[in-house]
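dude i think i finally got it to work??
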Amino acid sequence: VQFVESGGGLVQPGESLRLSCAASGFTFSSYTMAWYRQAPGKERETVAVINSAGRGTSYTNSVKGRFTISRDNAKNTVYLQMNSLTPEDTAVYYCNGLPNWDWGQGTQVTVSS
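look at this
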């Protein structure tokens, strides 16, 4: 199983980013997927979850209304559209299935003026 996250970068507050995660090594369309993040000195937290069909989603309170998780089962890829970014969103972002497999390298998101 492998996850390759991409799309992170350095942005200013209020800007947007779209993260992508290419998954391989398992039957992607059968699994719930999630985005996680880990800020320096903090534990990894679940940001957003999407069910296998892509019809059910949930978000941690701090990103509700700003982030949108989606998936393309034909491409084995899960996305995270992040709008209205704030410095508190600065973290390394990871994707994984539920239950979790080994973690990928993640993609760094830095929000700073």
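The chain has a mean pLDDT of 97.
im so relieved honestly
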